[in-house]
Write a structure and sequence with these properties.
alpha/beta; about 425 residues; 2 domains; four-stranded antiparallel sheet; 13 helices; binds zinc ion; Alkaline Phosphatase, subunit A; nine-stranded mixed sheet
């Protein structure tokens, strides 16, 4: 039986992987003996959607995970999406007791060995509890950085992420003693660096940052050495990359300007408690209340029509939905272009499990905050270009570029032993 490590370096492109490998001798050796493809995400390249695709081998149109949250009962009170919403995931093909997951979005504590994702909506950080005793250095690293903090000292934020990743890498090495069949380890450093440093990360003259890269690369080398000795097959993946960001777009502000919703100027105290536990701009306490809404964006990258049939406080009749969807489909790209000078990629859906519109504005971040000036654009935002690298000896048919669904299915086949 082949044992597997899936190592996720989300945020790096294929070229950046080779660049980073010079800080990690064993990663460099791996890159020389692996085949790597560019991996292209679909329209939505947020962390949750890309991970849902990796875990299920399905497109977002099938697994229905379009972000951290989705509105289920009320349009303006979205609920956290977890693995429970996804249906069949490839992890279930392996005995849960012989699986370890570290910092993987969507996964919840379960029979598997589990260490919190930095965005998990739970107070638990390690499961089972006995595992915590073996990992005294794993602490709750879910420190939330405000945009002001980040602007003042992005290097400190990056350093914090590197320290947290070093602990996660150590934890993955410790888990090997349990003879696990499958270990998933996601590092967050390159996601943090992407958002707040972007091109600065690749400027080698920045000495303090090079120390951090050496720390991270050294820890990874140690882990890869251990994995080699324990005969693990290693797959390295990045579910998305980064592109520079020039604007922050407030879709609800534009929908309000078009008369599709009204936004109250006070914080919403009615939000469900699960959402409050999450960090990130989508869940900050500066949320503004949407009222008498025909349609709004309650999760970044989506617009839902407030259907009477779908939501408890819905206002739009079934026979009005198609026309309203068409109207917003025409209105929104024009409004984004007029206000921000940016193009918009849009997809309209009639499946009642999906948002009415799903979109991406390349080069833009999103906000729900009406006071736009308080939130400057970050250095960069997710782009759909990551990579997939597998050992040459697995003989997988990898093209130079593959899409995320095909990539996920290759990984799933490797895990279940059905790959050639
Ligand atoms: Zn990110």
């Amino acid at each position: 039986m082949v044992k597997h490590l899936i190592l996720a370096l989300d945020g790096l492109s294929r070229e950046e992987l080779f660049w980073f490998s010079k800080f990690s001798p064993l990663l460099h050796k791996y890159c020389q003996t692996a085949v790597a493809s560019n991996l292209t995400a679909e329209l939505l390249c947020n962390t949750q959607t890309t991970w849902a695709t990796l875990l299920t081998g399905k497109s977002w149109k099938e697994h229905h995970c379009v972000g951290y949250t989705k509105p289920i009962l009320y349009l303006t009170e979205p609920q956290i999406v977890t693995e429970a919403h996804l249906g069949d995931i490839f992890l279930t093909r392996v005995d849960a007791e012989r699986t370890g997951a570290i910092n993987v979005p969507l996964l919840r504590p379960s029979a598997r060995k589990w260490i919190a994702d930095s965005a998990s909506a739970t107070n638990m950080t390690v499961s089972p509890a006995s595992l915590a005793q073996r990992l005294p250095r794993i602490t709750d690293r879910r420190s939330f950085h405000t945009p002001g903090n980040i602007r003042r000292n992005p290097i400190a934020v990056w350093r914090d992420a590197v320290r947290a990743d070093a602990e996660r890498i150590y934890a993955a090495g410790t888990l090997l003693d349990s003879n696990l069949e499958l270990v998933l380890l996601r590092l967050s450093s390159f996601d943090v660096a992407g958002h707040f440093l972007f091109r600065e990360l690749f400027d080698d003259s920045f000495v303090s940052k090079v120390d951090d890269l050496n720390l991270l690369g050294g820890a990874l080398s140690e882990l890869l050495q251990k994995m080699e000795e324990a005969e693990y097959s290693v797959v390295i993946i990045s579910n998305y990359g980064f592109e520079s960001c020039s604007r922050v777009v407030n879709i609800n502000g534009l929908l309000a300007a078009g008369g599709y919703c009204r936004i109250a100027l006070k914080s919403d105290s009615r939000r469900n408690s699960a959402a409050k536990e999450l960090s990130g701009s989508e869940h900050s306490n500066r949320w503004h209340v949407l009222q008498t809404s025909q349609a709004c964006s309650s999760t970044h990258g989506t617009v839902h029509i407030n259907s009477k049939n779908r939501f408890r406080t819905g206002v739009v009749e079934d026979n009005e939905i198609a026309a309203l969807r068409r109207e917003i489909l025409e209105y929104l790209p024009c409004a984004v272009h007029k206000r921000h000078g940016l193009g918009m990629l849009l997809n309209a859906n009639t499946d009642p499990e999906l948002p009415d519109l799903v979109f991406r504005v390349p080069g833009a971040d999103y906000t729900f905050n009406q006071t736009l000036n308080s939130y400057d654009a970050p250095a960069a935002v997710h782009s759909p270009f990551g990579f997939l690298a597998v050992p040459k000896d697995r003989m997988l048919p990898l093209d130079d570029t593959i899409n995320s669904v095909a990539g996920a299915n290759l990984v799933g086949q490797l895990i279940s032993g059905s790959a050639p």
